[in-house]
Specification:
Helices cover 29% and strands 22% of the residues. By secondary structure, the protein is an alpha/beta fold. Helix 4 crosses helix 5.
Length: 587
């Protein structure tokens, strides 16, 4: 069923609330999310007319159409020995959109993709909305069970699957069939660099594309608030939420992310950030706006990264702090022959990692955002007067999350209950809240979660932070990750920053361990660098020398640290491990 456009009206769009009526809309967000442009009431003003001459709904699809004209002969995609120009990419996307409509895709249908960073993923980000549909890029680390849940929840009509992930999709189909439901149509993506036969009773990507009409006229969004994608949050122990993006937000955040990343004209971007994550931080669309080149990597490793940086004249790339950590500690690391801009976000980066990555020749730009904000929302905008500060102070400032980019209306740190803005003293903690055109439309089929997220007219991030006297925000922790010990709130980020300064520690994560006396005490999970040995007592003493004693870990556990496919540490797993330990009885 076409749930995105079921019972549309000028009052409330059902793709957000799944059939919600005017009465069920959340009052504080009714005007900004639930009204179409046709419902606006303008005061009469002579000579003011809205027409096709001065109003076209914003959509990032227009970036591709322009790229074909302005950057037609420039390289758009490189993948191994395969290369395309922007003119070729545009033609391929047009034909693919045409082929989708021939398969019966209607406006608002969901099209899922399960694939790594390959050209098909880039092309589908344009072709799917050009067919009027909604793209749903799935996490490649999900198992069959989770994929089956997400396919049902999104009601995906078609799923494109990379040959290496076919077994995951087939397992999901088996689970769907057990419930006597019809799975989506499968389109098989065969890698030109690998030998793989097309399964029976499936369509093949290149064959499907080749059969499309080169003269197909792309469908435009009815309004710029129409959905363009659904992104499922990484999830913990429950089903991830489906975050709905609209054409307007994707357009604006793509341009803002280009600006944050210092990408102006014809950059060469290395895809180390998963394209399924927030639609590649919206840069899949954004690179078309500036005629950039997409360097696609199926697998990401330090050796692949450094070899590609040297061979392809890469100007920009991105990665979570754990990716930066992997790079600086890899035996394959080498100084760069040219400066490469690297954008990091996802968790607060330790200053020591920022310093070491820049010593190799990278220049770091630090951002902050969530799936619900289309990825990047704030940036640690550098001020020239900070150049004269000591290096240690510079890297401490760089670790801040900064100020909102120009497409976001406002970011603030507020008391979660009173909604009052906290003092700009760098010490008083509150919840980081955001509002503006680059905040999600809502959670798919989850009115309650949407209402809770937007309560008070702001999007509540769930992150705790402080606000400095210069207006820059700094994340201190997730609300659920703060360790409360003897009534004191301990920022696990601050403890982890100290741990990363230890020369033997490769990775560190801190969670709360139940304690009979204090309620909780800090428990550090640590992975050591190869060839290093250090005792638990030495690590605890190292922290005590640099932190108040109550903040230093009372427990240290040596083991590999679990992460998501985007490099975020899965603290919910570590919290469960800490809870499974017998309660400590420190005093």
């Amino acid at each position: 069923m076409n749930h995105f456009f079921r019972r549309r009206s000028s009052i409330c769009t059902s793709w957000l609330f799944n059939g919600a009526t005017k009465e069920t809309c959340v009052r504080p967000i009714r005007r900004s999310l639930c009204q179409s442009p046709e419902a606006w009431s303008w005061k009469s003003m002579d000579g003011m007319v809205r027409s096709p001459a001065n109003y076209v709904p914003l959509s990032p699809v227009s970036f591709l159409e322009r790229a074909a004209k302005v950057y037609g002969d420039r390289t758009s995609v490189v993948y191994g020995s395969a290369e395309f120009t922007w003119k070729q990419t545009h033609l391929r996307c047009v034909k693919l959109a045409s082929a989708l409509t021939r398969l019966g895709v209607s406006t608002g249908d969901v099209i899922a993709i399960l694939a790594p960073n390959i050209p098909a993923m880039q092309e589908l980000h344009f072709a799917v909305p050009m067919a009027g549909a909604v793209i749903c890029a799935l996490n490649t680390r999900h198992d069959s069970s989770m994929i089956s849940i997400l396919l049902r929840h999104s009601e995906a009509k078609i799923i494109f699957v990379d040959h290496q992930l076919l077994h995951i999709a087939q397992g999901a189909f088996d689970l769907i069939a057990k419930d006597e439901l019809k799975p989506p149509l499968l389109v098989f993506i065969r890698d030109p660099n690998a030998s793989a036969s097309v399964p029976n009773d499936t369509h093949e990507y290149e064959t499907l594309l080749a059969g499309g009409d080169a003269g197909y006229k792309a469908r435009r969004p009815r309004t710029e608030w129409d959905p363009i994608s659904v992104n499922y949050t990484s999830g913990t122990t429950s089903r991830p939420k489906g975050v709905v993006y609209n054409h307007r937000g994707a357009y604006l955040n793509a341009l803002a992310t280009l600006s944050v990343h210092g990408m102006s004209s014809m950059p060469v971007y290395l895809w180390t950030v998963p394209m399924f994550h927030c639609n590649g931080w919206c840069l899949i669309w954004g690179l078309a706006a500036v005629g950039g080149t997409n360097i696609c990597l199926r697998r990401v490793s330090p050796r692949e990264i450094f070899d590609t940086l040297a061979a392809k004249a890469v100007t920009n790339m991105g990665g979570a702090p754990t990716v930066l950590n992997m790079i600086v500690n890899s035996p394959d690391r080498r100084p760069l022959s040219r400066k490469v801009e690297i954008m990091t976000g996802g968790s607060p980066p330790p200053p020591s990692i920022l310093e070491r990555i820049e010593e190799l020749g990278f220049r770091v730009s630090h951002l902050y955002g969530l799936t619900e904000t289309y990825g990047p929302a704030t940036t640690c905008l550098w001020r020239p007067e900070w150049d004269s500060l000591p290096r240690e102070e510079q890297y401490r400032i760089r670790a801040r999350q900064g100020v909102e980019h120009y497409a976001l209306e406002e970011v603030d740190v507020r008391d979660s209950v009173t909604m009052e803005s906290v003092p700009a003293d760098g010490a008083t903690m509150g919840e980081i809240m955001l509002r503006g055109n680059t905040v999600m439309s809502g959670y798919l089929k989850d009115v309650k979660a949407t209402e809770e997220a937007f309560a008070g007219g702001w999007f509540r991030s769930g992150d705790l932070g402080v606000k400095h006297d210069d207006g820059y925000i700094e994340v201190k922790d997730r609300l659920k990750d703060v360790v409360i010990s003897g009534g004191e709130n301990i920022s696990t980020v601050e403890v982890e920053t100290v741990l990363y300064r230890h020369p033997a520690i490769l990775e560190a994560a801190v969670v709360g361990r139940p304690d009979d006396h204090w309620g909780q005490t800090p428990c550090a999970f640590v992975k050591l660098k190869e060839g290093f040995e250090v005792s638990r007592e030495e690590i605890i003493e190292f922290c005590r020398e640099r932190l108040p004693h109550y903040m230093a870990p009372k427990t240290v556990i040596f083991e590999d640290i679990p992460k998501t496919s985007t490099g975020k540490i899965q603290k919910f797993i570590l919290r469960e491990k800490a809870k499974a330990l017998s309660p400590s009885s420190s005093s």
